[in-house]
Design goal:
18% of the residues lie in helices and 52% in strands. By secondary structure, the protein is of the alpha+beta class. The protein is elongated and about 65 Å long.
Length: 205
């Protein structure tokens, strides 16, 4: 008989085998997705947009837990704000960020940081323009910043992000800028409240 009791166990095994073969590819795909979303607690990034104003930095981020990031940014200035002016010095920025993403430094973010830099502003006057005195100013810049933006992790470990912010700083001594009217110098190198633009590129692992 085609449906005899002796054949029922065999038919049941065949049916289970067929169901297992159908489920196996889906299980493999799920494992690949889980592997791709592995939590990445470390990131190393740079901000190439700041190269325009002579600010070179390396941002180091550590996430002790999802959503929470500590970051340290050592930085170096080598800028030529004017024809005969030069700004050099070192500094560091330390701060905290919160991310909406759960797999590392990804998603929308907001951050607060504190910065300190030891700088030297050299203002020359080789043309000996009357009333324009050459001056070498060494000073310390202190302040804080607030940033918001978005960052993604793509192609496995590649980080890319962008954001906007503002920083408020104060100088221990005011540098002598080249021109009597110097809005460009004040915007990028002077103290006070100034805008910030972030373009972050790096790796997370």
């Amino acid at each position: 008989m085609p449906n005899s009791p002796a054949r029922l166990p065999l038919l049941a095994l065949v049916a289970l085998g067929g169901i297992g073969s159908l489920l196996a590819p889906r299980t493999a795909r799920a494992e690949e997705i889980d592997e791709g979303l592995r939590f990445k607690p470390l990131a190393i990034q740079g901000n190439p947009l700041a190269f325009i104003i002579g600010r070179y930095s390396l941002d180091l981020e550590y996430l002790p837990a999802p959503h929470h990031a500590l970051h340290a940014t050592p930085l170096y200035y080598y800028a030529l704000p004017g024809t005969d002016d030069q700004l050099t010095g070192f500094g560091i920025e330390l701060g905290y960020r919160v991310y909406t993403g759960e797999s590392g430094p990804q998603g929308l973010f907001a951050g607060l940081s504190f910065l300190v830099a030891e700088l030297e502003y050299i203002h020359g006057n080789p043309a000996r323009v009357p009333g324009d005195q050459a001056e070498d100013t060494q000073y310390v810049q202190l302040g804080g910043a607030l940033d918001v933006g978005y960052q993604a992790i793509i192609l496995g470990n590649f980080c890319v992000g962008a954001g906007l912010g503002a920083q408020l700083t104060a100088d221990t001594h005011a540098p002598h800028f080249e021109y009597a009217s110097h809005p460009y110098h004040d915007l990028f190198y002077g103290p006070g409240l100034r805008p910030r633009a972030l373009l972050q590129v790096g790796t997370a692992f």
